[in-house]
Amino acid sequence: MDFPSELKYTEDHEWIRIEGDTAIIGITDHAQNELGDIVYVDINTVGDALSKGEVFGSVEAVKTVSDLFIPVDGTVVEVNEELDAEPELVNTDPYGRGWMVKISLTNPGDVDGLLSAEDYQKFIGA
């Protein structure tokens, strides 16, 4: 399993990459592995201002549906439209082409409370 050190992680198994005032968010390699084959990604929150911990969408795997939680306060500015036609990108490239949303950060300091790659690995027992 892969845990890129430049990312931050949540206990809900999302990852976040900060690029200036924007954050890119997806689910971790561990999460996609636990869910199994992703068949549908449902995100319709573009333009919504969300608070940390709110649901920004869901992923549907063959056997389950799982909510996606925003790791920091922000406004959803873009959804990865590639996932409409290829939801399996979440399985094959969770930290690259399988990203889910981009948000405009409300408070960039929010990321300080998230897990490092090392802390996330300890959290999941890897």
In a nutshell, what does this entry contain?
The chain has helices spanning 29-35, 82-85, 89-92, 117-124; strands at residues 8-9, 14-19, 22-27, 38-42, 49-50, 55-61, 65-69, 74-79, 101-105. With 126 residues, it is α+β, with helices and mostly antiparallel strands.
Sum up the structure in keywords.
alpha+beta, three-stranded antiparallel sheet, six-stranded antiparallel sheet, 126 residues, globular, 9 strands, 4 helices
Architecture blueprint of SSEs:
Elements: E1 8-9, E2 14-19, E3 22-27, H1 29-35, E4 38-42, E5 49-50, E6 55-61, E7 65-69, E8 74-79, H2 82-85, H3 89-92, E9 101-105, H4 117-124
Helix content: 10-25%
- Give the strand order of the largest sheet, numbering strands 1, 2, ... along the chain: 1-2-3-9-8-5
Biggest β-sheet description: 6 strands, antiparallel
Please identify the structural class as seen in this structure.
alpha+beta
Give the N-to-C terminal Cα separation: 9 Å
Order of helices and strands: EEEHEEEEEHHEH
Shape: globular
Number of DSSP strands? Answer: 9
Strand residue percentage = 25-35%
> Mean pLDDT, rounded to whole units?
95
Please work out how many helical segments DSSP would assign. 4
- Detail the poorly predicted runs: none
How large is the radius of gyration? 13 Å
